[in-house]
Design brief:
The structure holds two protein chains of two kinds. Helix content of chain A is 70%, strand content 2%. By secondary structure, chain A is mostly helical. Chain B has a domain at 5-96 and 169-253: Rossmann fold (3-Layer(aba) Sandwich). Chain B has helices at 43-49, 80-86, 102-111, 118-131, 135-138, 151-164, 181-194, 207-213, 237-242, 247-253; strands at 5-14, 17-27, 32-36, 60-68, 71-72, 87-90, 169-173, 199-203, 216-222, 229-236. The chains are: A mainly alpha, B alpha/beta. At the A-B interface, helix 7 and helix 8 of A face helix 2, helix 3 and helix 6 of B.
């Protein structure tokens, strides 16, 4: 009885009825639903398997020695040794790269959203940011190698690596910060202007705090992207087996380099170290993400702490 | 506090489009002036020219004179920020700052403009919230986010925020259009109370509201879509609603168009 449509005749003579979902639409719905789940599974399989591989292989050498020792004086076939020098290197290089690219990226985004008015300069900046997004990481490394090390004559250093990484970070920071600033409702800016607050103060006290959480997320994405870069580091940081705490003097190491180096060696002890290096890198990026989330959560008063 | 506004020969543009043309009027201190008229006739645009908020929109500009107690707000050397400090504004939709607590919202204009001691700020926040008839409802949760209040409370919070900087004039752009009748009544009572201290200008689509709260009413209209809006008539509210001199005003008020 539910299958018979209820019919009625309207004043203008046209028939209206409550329609029921046809079998073919039901089937289509099911098929598409199945396809979506399948696509999801296909996307998750590599993610989970990579994580599983790294964790299961990396746990073997994930110990205190690995985290506190360098590869200094470790023979080619020896077990032991660790990635302390590489962890220090990665942290310093990523921190320096962030110190360069976050302010520049943020100011660029503020210019684009608040002051650019879509004029010629802001369109040009937008265009070049898009171009920069597409620059392969090797090219960024080659540029710093050619400009900083070969042309200006500085030595290989963590700082040179940070320069290369900042080139890669900047467009990501600009784009994500720009998106977040555009999401801030104009009502809030106008409310602030109407209180007699100057524009720069409105940006500082109203716009930026409102967009803060999103900007932090964007910065973390950029950090995660560059923390795993190997190619630009190869050409700028060079590499070393010993601890170098000074990013401005002499070759450093980075975790991606460490993994690259160890994985290329023919013995199992080195391969194990490579897996553990990869695991450490993943953990560092995850930890940084967690810290950023905590900061964002702590700074967001909308929760009514 | 409370100053007179004299407008003469004011045109406002969005790019090349002229939104209002040749508006002249006098807005008396310590009174409520209401602007009525159909949508798109330039009431809000005109309101925004009074505290130089119009030019915030890219491409927007103003020609003509706005005198605040004889001082031209559009004189070339006038700092727009200082104008907005003297002429506060409440918007159509309540827009408390989402990252700030109730207290910080009210103190925003003070804090953002300079240093005040904690006790001074406390005093002004309390006075402003009392002035906006909101103190009793929020005094126990001043540190809770302003966005957690109801719509009507948020709008009164915005009024408190606007009067905390001690303006001479308060502009209200359809302050009740997003609110329920009870909240509307609360805001109307508040306006009647604020009238003693401030010059209040209100844009409203609700003619009963204009009739209820205002002392003088201006009727805006435009000849046709795309043409600039003009002031058709301005008079005592009681006369506007009983015996308007223009046919268009009468048609609008009696609901024959618009």
């Amino acid at each position: 009885m539910t299958s018979t449509p209820i019919k009625e005749v309207r004043e203008d003579g046209r028939k209206t009825s409550i329609q029921h979902i046809s079998t073919s639409r039901r089937i289509k719905d099911r098929v598409v639903q199945g396809l979506v789940y399948l696509a999801f599974a296909l996307a998750v399989v590599p993610l989970v398997s990579v994580l599983w591989l790294v964790v299961s292989n990396g746990l073997e050498r994930f110990d205190l020695e690995f985290l506190t020792h360098s590869m200094n004086g470790i023979g080619a076939r020896d077990a032991h040794g660790g990635a302390y020098h590489a962890i220090i290197g990665t942290l310093e290089q990523v921190l320096l790269a962030s110190l360069i690219s976050v302010p520049i990226g943020l100011f660029t985004a503020i210019y684009l959203v608040e002051y650019g008015n879509n004029g010629r300069l802001s369109r040009a900046i937008s265009f070049f940011v898009d171009v920069m997004t597409g620059v392969p990481s090797v090219v960024a490394g080659l540029f710093i190698l050619a400009f900083w090390i070969l042309f200006l004559g500085f030595e290989y250093s963590g700082w040179a690596g940070a320069l290369a990484l900042s080139i890669l970070m900047m467009p990501t920071v600009v784009r994500s910060a720009e998106e977040m600033l555009r999401l801030v409702p104009n009502d809030l800016r106008e409310a602030s202007y109407a209180l007699g607050v100057p524009k720069w103060r409105t940006i500082l006290k109203v716009v930026l705090p409102t967009a803060f959480t999103g900007i932090v997320t964007g910065v973390m994405l950029a950090v995660a992207r560059v923390a795993g870069e190997t190619a630009p580091l190869l050409m700028t940081v060079f590499f070393t087996n010993s601890i170098n705490n000074d990013p401005f003097n002499g070759p450093q190491m980075g975790l991606p380099l460490f993994v690259f180096d160890q994985a290329a060696r023919p013995n199992d002890t080195a391969i194990d170290r490579a897996w553990t290096g990869a695991l450490t890198l993943i953990l560092i990026v995850m930890l940084l993400n967690l810290v950023a989330r905590l900061i964002a959560w702590w700074r967001a008063p909308a929760r009514g702490r | 506090m409370s100053k007179q506004i004299q407008v003469s020969g004011l045109d406002a543009y969005y790019g090349s489009h002229k939104a209002i043309e040749d508006v002249s009027m006098t807005i008396e201190p310590r009174s409520i002036t209401a602007f009525i008229g159909p949508s798109g006739c330039g009431k809000s645009t005109f309101l925004r020219t009074l505290n130089r908020m119009h030019e915030v929109i890219p491409g927007a500009r103003v020609e003509g004179k706005v005198l605040l107690d004889g001082e031209d707000l559009y004189a070339p050397t006038v700092e727009p920020v200082s104008v907005r400090r003297m002429i506060g504004m409440v918007f159509q939709r309540p827009n408390p700052f989402p990252t700030m607590s109730i207290y910080e919202n009210v103190a925003a204009g003070l804090k953002l403009n300079g240093r005040l001691s904690k006790s001074e700020t406390d005093g002004i926040v309390e006075d402003s919230l009392k002035g906006a008839n909101l103190w009793n409802e929020v005094k126990d949760r001043l540190n809770k986010p302003g966005a957690g209040l109801s719509g009507g409370q948020q709008q009164r919070l915005c009024i408190a925020r606007a009067i905390a900087v001690r303006p001479e004039v308060l502009l209200m752009d359809e302050p009740c259009s997003a609110l329920d009748p009870i909240s509307t009544l609360a805001i109307e009572d508040l306006m009647a109370k604020l009238k003693d201290q401030y010059t209040i200008v209100i844009v409203t689509h609700n003619m009963q509201q204009a009739a209820r709260v205002s002392d003088r009413t201006a009727f805006f209209n435009l000849a046709e879509q795309g043409k600039p809006g003009k002031v058709i008539e301005m008079d005592e509210t009681s006369r506007m609603f009983t015996n308007p001199s223009q046919k268009a005003t009468e048609d609008y008020i009696t609901g024959r168009f618009g």
